[in-house]
Amino acid sequence: MIANMRTRNILQRRLFFNRLQLMTVPSLEDPHLMTGFSTAAVGQIRNHSSYAAVHGLDAVSFSKTGKVTRYFTSDRNDKFTRKEFSSKLLKSIPDHVKIVEVGARDGLQNEKNIVPTAVKVELIKLLVSSGLPVVEATSFVSPKWVPQLADAKDVMAAIKNVEGASFPVLTPNLKGFEAAVTAGAKEVAVFPAASESFSKANLNSSIEDNLSCCRDIASAARNLSIPVRGYISCVVGCPLEGFVAPAKVAYVAKALYDMGCSEISLGDTIGVGTPGSVIPMLEAVLDVAPVDKLAVHFHDTYGQALSNILVSLQMGISTVDSSVSGLGGCPYAKGATGNVATEDVVYMLNGLGVKTNVDLGKLMVAGDYICNHLGREPGSKAATALTKLTANASKL
């Protein structure tokens, strides 16, 4: 079975498209309200069906005055179905993608100022109301190391009656696992690293020692019928070691798969990955674990997260981690920015005709809520653009 995994998920790398010879549009011309000068250019694109279907140029309308207006939404599900995409590059993308929201835990854990428990709980409720199926709630780690999450028990108590999503929590050791179970956790996660140096710095243990701890947690969880998710840090790069070989990631992934993890999330912790490094990493992991057990978790430090997610989808991955408004960071990588913004991921998936069951407008409400509390601008480019350019973004 494992031998066929890569065969089923081979990325089609060599695809050829007809070139479009477009006239030059003046740089000072408004890109969203174009004059008649650029009408011909848009017309060329609209007549090129495959290009228009891929890039959403069906959302361009021509007014009687000769001006062209582009609507500001990627949600084209009312006009296009997955079958209408003609590009071979898109046919390998899953019809449905599960989004795992990590903003309430991963997104907030590095905030210097303590976020009140009530704010965290309200954020979680808003995220659930948007249709997100999985919202990572908190982590049962030592308050000494992560004071922001010292209220883990209180958060779990406050959301125990919230329905509509699952709420996994991180457990670094058996003590944390037992505390999580006592607090009512129904799903837990372990988090080894593919880098020896990072494992010692972040977890105070070697990779092997940490995997041994993960096995203990997995065994205890199995006895209670509690699913265990495995996160792997530094899957393409490490702030201490630099490049991380795909074979090292595959080794840890196989260990997690063999111990019975229900899902394995591959994390580019410092956001240095590009499709050129992500593809060989995924190929190595697909040799040891089935694609339906894998998820990807990209930080957007270098602006590569969406590109990396796209190639992951093309290789068959159908679960993506993200953080509302791009919250998060890495305490061991100075300058590393947060996770990819959930709003941006949903916007892209809408544009691809991929179902997520997530309401982008309600998601933006959650992002605005937490950003207002933190006193910062939203970290989502899609949310920022839609807020400025759309009269009522909640109805997208």
Gist?
The protein has helices spanning 5-8, 39-47, 49-55, 88-91, 103-107, 117-129, 152-158, 174-182, 196-203, 207-223, 246-258, 275-286, 305-314, 342-351, 360-374, 381-389, and strands at 33-34, 60-62, 68-70, 98-101, 134-135, 138-139, 169-170, 188-190, 228-232, 237-238, 242-243, 263-268, 294-298, 319-322. It has 396 residues and is an alpha/beta fold. The model is unreliable at 3-74 and 391-396 (pLDDT under 50).
Task: Give a quick set of tags describing it.
TIM Barrel, disordered C terminus, metal ion binding, EC 4.1.3.4, hydroxymethylglutaryl-CoA lyase activity, HMGL, 2 domains, 396 residues
Assembly form of the protein: single chain
- Portion of residues within helices: 25-40%
Q: State the separation between the terminal residues, measured CA to CA.
A: 42 Å
How do the SSEs run, as a string of H and E? HEHHEEHEHHEEHEHEHHEEEHEHEHEHHH
**Cross-sheet strand order for the largest sheet:** 5-4-14-13-12-9-8-7-6
Q: Tell me, what is the CATH class of the largest domain?
A: Alpha Beta
Shape estimate: globular
Tell me the CATH topology of the largest domain.
Answer: TIM Barrel
Low-confidence stretches: 3-74, 391-396
Biggest sheet: strands, sense, closure? 9 strands, parallel
Shape-level CATH architecture of the largest domain: Alpha-Beta Barrel
Helix segment count? 16
Number of strands: 14
Structural class: alpha/beta
The CATH superfamily of the largest domain turns out to be Aldolase class I
Mean pLDDT: 82
Please state roughly what percent of the residues sit in beta strands, choosing from under 5%, 5-15%, 15-25%, 25-35%, 35-45% or over 45%. Answer: 5-15%
User: How many separate domains?
Assistant: 2
The radius of gyration is: 22 Å
